[in-house]
Amino acid sequence: MAAWFTRSSGLARCLFRRTTKMASPAIFGCGLGPLSSDPAMAAPVNGASSAGGCLRSVRHLGSAKSGERVSQVDDRCGDQVLDFPGGKVMFVPEMKFLPASPSERINCYRVLDYNGQTISGSSFPEVGKEVAVKIYSDMITLQVMDTIFYEAQRQGRISFYLTSNGEEAINVASAAALTMDDIVFPQYREPGVLLWRGFTLQEFANQCFGNKLDYGKGRQMPIHYGSNRLNYYTVSSPIATQIPHAVGAAYSLKMDGKKACTITYFGDGGTSEGDFHAALNFAAVLEVPVIFFCRNNGWAISTPTTEQFRSDGAVVRGQAYGIDSIRIDGNDALAVYSAVHAAREMAIQECKPIFIEALTYRAGHHSTSDDSTKYRSTDEIEHWRTARDPVSRFRKWVERNGWWSDAAEEEHRGNTRKELLQAIQVAERAEKPPLSELFTDVYDQVPSNLYEQEKLLRETIKKHPAEYPSDVPV
Amino acid sequence: MLGIARRKVGLGVFSATILEQALQRALTAGSVLPKKYSTTAKEQMTVREALNTALDEEMSADPKVFLMGEEVGEYQGAYKISKGLLEKYGPDRVLDTPITEAGFAGIGVGAAYYGLRPVVEFMTFNFSMQAIDHLINSAAKSNYMSAGQISVPIVFRGPNGAAAGVGAQHSQCFAAWYAHVPGLKVLTPYSAEDARGLLKAAIRDPDPVVFLENELLYGESFPVSAEVFDSSFCLPIGKAKIEREGKHVTITAYSKMVGYALQAAEILSKEGISAEVINLRSIRPLDRDAINASVRKTNRLVTVEEGFPQHGVGAEICMSVIEESFEYLDAPVERIAGADVPMPYAANLERMAVPQVDDIVRAAKRACYRSVPMAAAA
Q1: Which residue ranges does the record assign to the Transketolase-like pyrimidine-binding domain (chain B) (predicted)?
Q2: Which pLDDT value is given to residue A22?
Q3: What whole-number distance in Å separates Cα of residue A248 and Cα of residue B109?
Q4: I want to staple B285 with a disulfide (CB 3.0 to 4.6 A). Which of A4, A157, B143, B238 is the partner?
Q5: Strand partners, A382
Q6: Between residues A93 and B35, the one the model is more confident about
Q7: Active-site positions of B?
């Protein structure tokens, strides 16, 4: 009897302590602490912790304004601990379901406000003039590239194109925070990463025109860039397949002991694919240095995020798989740079995955095959294109530092435009890949049946030269 | 090679005990490998031993080779193919994966992109359906799509085809599915020699290879010559083997059906029909030269496979012979395949859904005009 009384009073004390300390909704089984104000803390969610199994804490990186401490459950609650596979958990007699949507969404890290001024109290690494100017000018180059290639498709000169309007900060600033040793597994809306690494306008044009100088030998649709030299894996159309690839490659880096990480980009829609979930789970279990970068731009062709998922965006998914995660303002170049910089450090030093959700907006159509005015208002698009443009926002910050001017802007845009038009002309006139490239690379060595087919084809061409197109080299 | 090797072995209490026990066993047993055969005269080898030693030797020779799949580590492999490998090579090179074929196939491809040589095990190829996008769109096509910049030296292996009483979702043969795709190589070993030589060749090959084993063959023992035991033993990919020479009819088969075909040949020989049995070994590339040379000698052909008939391997072989050796055929090609139904469970129905030795014998007789052709039957 006495023992029972002690136990239940101990339980009552635990419950009282927890309910008074916590501000966020009660979580069944354990106390979930509110956000910590310490941005350097990043402990993974762990079901089996050391402090008598009673502590389960969750902390986020970020400039959360909350100053409340994480709640701790007393050791006297040791009686109320259950020991199951997976570790110790506290039990509670009251039944409470975790809410589907929390009362507060996960906060978003940003450095610059809409006027391009650093927000007081924001933490970010120093960005010098050289890097800042290169980031900004590459963002402009990307904008110019997108405009001109899009027009070229409309003129029928290339068959397809996909712009990155509104995501220039994500593209370039994230690339700037990485090194050339870090391997990139893109979706398809990240040509800015390739641009930063040194892919030339001529190389972009060659791929889009599928000529003989294309590194892809004319085998892929436009925008399916790839470069071994720049550690950028060839774009592959199926959504989210690159995510487990990135994890596998990160595993290889870990086995090699290399001081580098992999980064993989995908959109809000990509987080619905099975590959996404398998990859995140694997990365957490295998403990590999990979950065998962989700470009949550609000739209997957015509599907808005409200129809894509019901979770609080993608950041909670990273957390759910046991991965340190952060939500950032994707239209803030400095926030992107800062977060990727920190993520890379953590991924490599601690050999673990990091998840970044960058909130942004797809200011252009999904691709040249899409007309987004059919499913969203032109006002909305205009608003994001002008008032929320990441390029002009960063420009204000760069100019305020005295590193840019109107003259520089005009000159850079003009030069890029001229260079690009020239590159397109050259690419358009260049020869297409020769016939021999139809049969190579299926396997490491050309198999006998393909060798025979090529021979047969060449004989046929020789016999009927009039039937063969004159502009395709043999 | 091990790099930053930290990996939590399981969760909580239970897994630690299993590992401890395994280590105890290993230490007391003195050896962590299946018995090593002396070079002088051990003559028999099971397919299981063949696969296990092949994996062991290739992992030993090349630190980039690693094994990944469900139950391959602690459990020693769902069919014990990877027995002893976790203890010998550690959790970095023998990975027990969560249950997600799509996940580990994709991760294997990613590792291969970067330069490792993964061997990905599917518990059965029926489950590879959940990962087939990665086998086709990520593995098979990458070298071509990237114009040679990305090669995928990966091996996907596991049991394929019917076992015994496992029903429709565990019994399908996928040889025709994977052999359909340019960019993949598809191998189907039969004997222990095949298993050893072809698996070694597959692991060393720079292209993605689908390695289709058979669950019922794992325990079967085969006589092997001394050279098979050598660690450099390797069989060429794309070459079939004439298991039994003959004059009157060619029988092509792969995997378990080779055994049935050999039994059928024995029965036929007593009735005066000398059958030549070809063990295909490789479905893609198919050894068309060997098949056609044999048909030009015998003038009659029976194709045998366990899988469904429509768009099957036999259909391709038949077409190859028509294209290259039409005038040599003295009779229509006979195609023996599984029944065109999802595999039933009941033993009696299952027996009728899979080719039996009698079916092969009857087909050979039809081809030799010893019995009425199928079309004329009432």
Answers
A1: 45-220
A2: 42
A3: 7
A4: B238
A5: none
A6: A93
A7: 101, 170
The answer to whether A241 contacts B134, with C-beta atoms less than 8 Å apart, is yes
The whole-angstrom distance between A176's CA and the closest CA on chain B is: 22
The pLDDT tens digits of the residues spanning B36-82 come to 444 445 589 999 999 999 999 999 999 999 999 999 999 999 999 99
Mean pLDDT of chain B: 89
With CB atoms and an 8 Å threshold, state whether B100 touches A282.
Answer: yes
A48 touches chain B (CB under 8 A): yes
Helices A242-256 and B101-114 sit at what angle, rounded to 10 degrees? Answer: 50
Cα–Cα distance, B336 to B367 (Å, whole number): 12
Q: What is the mean pLDDT of residues B246-252?
A: 97
- Asked if the model's pLDDT at residue B376 lies above 70, the reply is no
For A323-372, the pLDDT digits (tens) are 999 999 999 999 999 999 999 999 999 999 999 999 999 999 999 999 99
Average pLDDT, stretch B115-140? 96
Q: Which residue of A has its CA nearest to B103?
A: A278
Which run of H or of E encompasses B4?
none
Whether residue B100 and residue A281 make contact (CB cut-off 8 A), yes or no, is: yes
Residues of B in contact with A236 (CB under 8 A): 137-138, 142, 145
Q: Which of residues 110-129 of B touch A (CB under 8 A)?
A: 110-116, 118
CA B295 to CA B287: how far, in whole Å? Answer: 13
Please state the φ and ψ torsions of residue A58, each to the nearest 5 degrees. -130, 125
Sketch the domain layout of chain A as residue ranges: 2-90, 129-429, 436-467
Least CA distance to A235: which residue of chain B? B146
B220 or A449, greater pLDDT? B220
Block residue for tokens 């029903």: B167
d(CA B339, CA B295): 26
Let me know: does A36 contact A44? Beta carbons within 8 Å. Answer: no
Q: Which residues of A touch B102 (CB under 8 A)?
A: 244, 274-275, 278
Q: Which residues have CB under 8 Å from A136's CB, separation 6+?
A: A333, A391, A394, A395, A398, A404
At the fourth CATH level, the homologous superfamily of domain A129-429 is: Thiamin diphosphate (ThDP)-binding fold, Pyr/PP domains (3.40.50.970)
Specify the pLDDT at position B291.
98
Q: Does B143 touch chain A if contact means CB atoms closer than 8 Å?
A: yes
The sign of the torsion formed by the CA atoms of A9, A15, A18, A19 equals: negative
Residue of B nearest to A212 (CA): B147
SS3 B335: strand
Name the stretches of chain A with pLDDT < 70.
Answer: 1-78
B90 interface with A at CB cutoff 8 Å: no
Higher pLDDT, A86 or B5: A86
Q: How many CB atoms lie within 10 A of CB A385?
A: 14
Helix (H) or strand (E) holding A153: helix A129-154
A442 in contact with B at a CB cutoff of 8 Å? yes
Of B1, B100, B137, the CB nearest to A238: B137
Q: Tell me how many residue pairs between chain A and chain B have CB atoms under 8 A apart.
A: 166
CA dist., res. B137 & res. B131, Å (int): 10
Considering CB atoms only, which of A48, A234, A442 is closest to B183?
A442
Question: How far does B297 lie from chain A, in Å, by closest CA?
Answer: 23
User: Which residues, numbered 241 to 300 in chain B, qualify as contacts with chain A under a Cβ-Cβ cut-off of 8 Å?
Assistant: 285, 288
Per-residue pLDDT band for B370 (boundaries 50, 70, 90) equals: confident
Name the phi and psi angles at B367, rounded to 5.
Answer: -65, -30
Cα–Cα distance, A146 to A155 (Å, whole number)? 14
Residues in B closer than 8 angstroms to A86, CB to CB, are: 11-12
Contact status, residue A352 vs residue A44, Cβ threshold 8 Å: yes
